[in-house]
Every structure is written in structure tokens, then in C-alpha cells.
Design goal:
single chain, alpha+beta, Phosphoribosyl-aminoimidazole Synthetase, Chain A, domain 2, six-stranded mixed β-sheet, 11 helices, about 25% strand, globular
Length: about 325
Amino acid sequence: MKVGKLNWDDLKEIISSNRSVDRADVRIKSGVGEDCSVVEYGDYECVLSTDPITGTESNVGKLAVHINCNDIASCGVEPVGILVTILAPENITMEEIKEVMRQIDEETKKLNVEILGGHTEVTNAVNKLIVSCTAIGKGKLGSAVATSGAKIGDDIVVTKLLGMEGSSIVVNDYYDYIKDILSEEEIKEARDYVNNISVVKEGTIAGSFGVNSMHDITEGGVLGALWEMAEASGVGFKVYGERMPISEATKKICDRLNLDILRFISSGSMLVTTKNGEELVKRLKQNGINASLVGKITSSKGILVGNSVEQEVRPPERDELFTIEEKINKFCI
């Protein structure tokens, strides 16, 4: 099988055929495109999500905290705690494990998120360090926003810049292949993207603003996130390539490595749908977060418009990040 997330047909079949229990107190349930599940507890509800870091060995502790807390934020609530599982190969050093936990402690401190527990193990079942976290959030009953809530006519908003996580990974893991096409300032900019991949702030702002749907943009990029949101909500979308917020550094990286930026891992950007996108963009910018209106939710099909040409968006396959090695080998970049 190919490296990366399972294709969505297989994943959908696995989810639908392996859910024997259907509890009434689980308000938002697992499904294709849903970042979190939400469980009711009296006047409050608990929001839960889990994800590993597998695509890089750089900044794994930092990334593990943020991609999981971002999922909680994509429901419009604040993360309160995180559970950490570390699976390490036999050649790991204690210093490397301590560095991962130092990163996790540092990032959770920034978010006021408590480390609730977890598991650390050295095992021959893995050949590189794997960090997987489960994040937990809390909100008032009925407050959590689902990915599946997008409505026809909604504006589609994207926050910050696309491709930040992917660009940061590339400058660390594939530096030799891009160093000659980026300036020193652009290299520093791309490395610093890892410090801007939290969407907790915009998630809580959007949650209090009142939106219909949110989804953080991770594997599969913005087109993958749009497809997941549309699939979960039973709607379509129409977005415009020229409106997508992309830095020059990320454009150069994707051009050099022959990557589709719109399908490139993009933690740090949030996808939001709302009836009043202009007002949400204004609210976000007032709070120091850049945001862009990129399109509309429609009744059917996902459409990307580029150079006045429309093309239908197909279900996401593996993220562009996982194609870099074979492209380097094939094209001898």
C-alpha cells in the first residue's frame, strides 16, 4: 500500500462497517472529515481528537501538540489537556526522548494545556520516532462546531498561509534540494512557519463569532479539507485558486519539488464556512490573524477555478509531502 492516509472510499467503508454501538450522549460522531467527536456531560460537552506525527522527524513534539489541539479548536472550543504516546526505535537516545518531551511541555505551556498522561516505549515495531497525541477540550453543551455543518451559500474563509507546515518540514528535511532557489530570508521564514501552526486563537474567535463549519487544513491540503467538509456536509463548493493565500517561499518550494500546493499539508490554516465571511475576516484581522475569502459553498460538486478554467475536485489521495522522495528519485532534483 502507498504511504499516507487511507483513501476515502476505504476509510468510509471501515468506519461505517465497524460502528456497532451508537450512544445518544455522543452528539458529534466519528466520520469522514470530522476532526473530533463530542460527548455530552450534563451542561457541558467533551471534545476529543487524536493524531500521530509520521511525515517528519523534525519538531515532532511541537507538531504533535499543535495538530491535535488544532482539531479541538476546529470545533470552536478551547483545548484543556493532552495525552502523549511515544513509540521510539531501538537506536534512540534518552536525550532525543527528553527533547521531544521538552517541546511538548513548551508548546502546551503556550496554550495553557495540561499533559494528562500517556505512554513512552522503545520498540522494534518502528524504525523512526512516532509521537501520537489525544487532545481533549471542554465547552458548554451544544457549543462545539462540526465539520459537517456547512450550508449552501456560506462564504469559505481560509486563515493565514497555506503550506506552512509542509514548507517548514521541507526546509528541515530536504534542505539540499531547495537551498539554491530560496534566499536566506525565505529559508528563515519557512523554518519559522512551525511557530505559527496553531489555529487555537482563530478557532475560538470563529466559534464565538458564530460559524457553520470549521476544519483545520492538514494532510491533503486545502482541497482535501474542502472535499472532506463538503462530503461530511452533503454540499459542494466553488473556490478560486488566485484567492488562495500562499507565500513566495512556499510557491518556490512547490515549484522545485513539483508539488501541488493546494494538496500540501497545511497545519496552521483553518477552513471556515459562515454566512458573513467579510465580517469574520474583519474580526480575525482585528485580532492579528490574516484571512482570505476564497469561495462559496454550493449545492453539489467541488469546483476549483484557475485561469478562468473550472475543474472538478476529486477525493484526496495521499498528501504531496509523501511524494517528495519518489519525485526526487525520479527527476533527480
